Amino acid sequence: MTRPEIRGVILDILENIAPDEDLTDLNDSDPFREQMELDSMDFLDIVMELRKRYRVQIPEEDYPNLNTMNGTVDYLEPKLADTPV
Amino acid sequence: MAGPASQYDVLIIGAGLSGLAAGIRLAHYEKRVAILERHTTIGGLNSFYQLRGRRHDVGLHAVTNFRPPTLKPLGPLAKLLRQLRISWDEFDLAPQCGSRVVMPGASLRFTNDFDRLQSDVAERFPDQIDGFKQLDAAAMSADTFDESREFQPSRERVRSLITNPLLEDLLFAPVLFYGSPTPHDCDWRQFAILWRALYREGFGRPRDGVKPILKTLTKRYKALGGDLWLRHGVQAIRSNGGKTVGVTLDDGTEIDAPHILSSAGLPQTAAMAGDAADLPTDPGPLSFVESISVLDRPASELGYDDTVTFYSTRDPRAGDRFRYANPEDPCDLTSGIACSPDNYQYFEASGGPHDEGCLRLTVLANPEYWANLEPDVYTREKARWHAAALDAGRDFDVLPDVTGAQASHVLDTDVFTPKTITRFTGHPNGAVYGSATKIRDGRTGLDGLHVIGTDQGYLGIVGAMLSGVSIANRLLT
């Protein structure tokens, strides 16, 4: 997956978890939580959706990498390099 | 498929709201999961039934926590629906018209707009409004997820802020009636949950009652590959060396699973799992008699406009306090909850207002009395106490005269008692709010056995679903 594809995947997961949020103006360098209402249950859902869809294991100590869209894409890029969309 | 598989990742005992919600989460994340339900239908304490051509809800008066997802911060129902991947619109919740709590000397209105209640309090109890605001702040900031098992009384906290006994009773009555398993009081965490659910967020209801909610959940669960087995009662939870290994069904079939979620209540779960589960077995003392009067026109045309009316005829100003306890009489006629499913603002797109009307009345009842009557006496006593409760509500001016002048508008009546509740849910004493002891962390003495539902201590149908989701999430992470 390329960086734009990974970004698309994350947007799809966010839309799936929080269909009531408008994501069109999402700023990739600001934390998700400052731009939408995302509690710890929702955050875990992102991790679990990634595990379900692409078998990516994300250990708890790496969660801070997932605070922003840019951080998430940076973190996932090497892990999903060989994974098709 | 002819029957359950011999092995699952997780077994869920009970197809009520907590079991279905847990099942959805587990199946969504690819667990092999089966729900085992002894009864012939889904829903548990919040089921529905068909009687003489009409469908009635067993327990649902209102869906609490009415706070649409357009309002931020999100309320618990909107958060829960995210977890279930169900959209707000699928439950088709119409907002209430308005509810009241009535006692001699004062009544308070509460709607889905908290300011209405606050202004009623300010107007009728001007010297109490500061305390009321502080109580609201305390309830809004309480840690409702604190999992300690110790009972945390609410009365003293409330009394430190509300010094007028009438206002204290007015604020306590809806909270106790809609969820306390404890006589006269309620755990502070539950008080806070109910304060938010009833006063801050308010009531809604799908036009067709609980059935569309249950159908939505079941459809979603099955679409995710979850198994649902009705008429499959569990007689025993099997364990080995302190760890659950599976269940034995009523017919002797064994199913293996490392994790079991039981929504059967603490006494029944203890009976299935044995001493190793180390669970309290008090069945909970509080139960109700509830009657349903089907009307030939909407209840508002007979003069009943409230969505829900909580009332007590006792006068706290004279020291006669609202009584929330197991009565010595078969029913306590000094208080009750009236409601009409007609009094919601139903959307035209969902079918608009109901053609027929309905009036429900719920009063505290003595479970022992109702459990031990001969069949013919039981039928007679149901009719007698049902009429007496309606008359008491009418005499207190909260109900129309459906036993007298307006009796010709009543098309049908059904009454259920603690005995009925026990028969259909397995809960001893007909204890609708379960044990007084709650297991908030869901843990038992057995590894792999978790408690969900009423006895985990969340409340109402939203609480039931949240309970299932929160314990399922623990298994998933």
From TrEMBL, chain A:
The keyword Phosphoprotein applies. Gene3D superfamilies: ACP-like. It comes from the Bacteria. Residues 1-80 form the Carrier domain. The keyword Phosphoprotein applies. PROSITE patterns: CARRIER. Coiled coil: none annotated. Keywords: Phosphopantetheine, Phosphoprotein. InterPro entries: ACP, ACP-like_sf, PP-bd_ACP. PANTHER family: ACYL CARRIER PROTEIN, CARRIER DOMAIN-CONTAINING PROTEIN. This is Acyl carrier protein. It comes from Alienimonas chondri.
From TrEMBL, chain B:
Keywords: Oxidoreductase. InterPro entries: Amino_oxidase (IPR002937), FAD/NAD-bd_sf (IPR036188). It comes from Alienimonas chondri. Belongs to the carotenoid/retinoid oxidoreductase family. Gene3D superfamilies: FAD/NAD(P)-binding domain. This is Amine oxidase domain-containing protein. Residues 17-476 form the Amine oxidase domain. The keyword Translocase does not apply.
